[in-house]
Amino acid sequence: MRILLVQPPIEDYYDTSIRTYPLGLLYLARAIRDVADVSILDARTTRKPVRLEKHPFPELDEFYREDVYTPFSFFSRYSRFGMSANELHSELESANADMVCVAALCSAYEQQALEVARIAKEVDPNVITVMGGVHATLFPARLLSHPDVDYCVRGEGETPLFNLVSALSKNEGDIKTIGGLCSRLPSGLRISGVHSETNIDALPERRLLNADRYRINKKRYTFFLTSRGCPFRCGFCGKPPVPYRKRTLSSIEEELDDCQDIGIEAIDFEDDMLNLDKRTFAGILQLLVGRGLTLSAMNGIYPGNMDISTLRLMYESGFRRLNFSLVDIAETVISAHNRNPHSDFLGLLPFLEESGFLTEVHFIIGLPDQSPENLVDTLLFLMERRVLLGPSIFYHAPGSPIYEARFQDTNSIDPGQMRSSVMLPVNPLFGRPITYTFVKLVRFLNEIKRLADRNGGPSRLSDLLNPRSGWIDDERGQKIIEQLLRKKEFLRWDKKQNQMGQEPQDQALVRFFFQRAKGMKIKGYRTNAEILFDM
Ligand code: SF4
Question: How far apart are CA 247 and CA 199, in angstroms?
Answer without folding.
Answer: 8
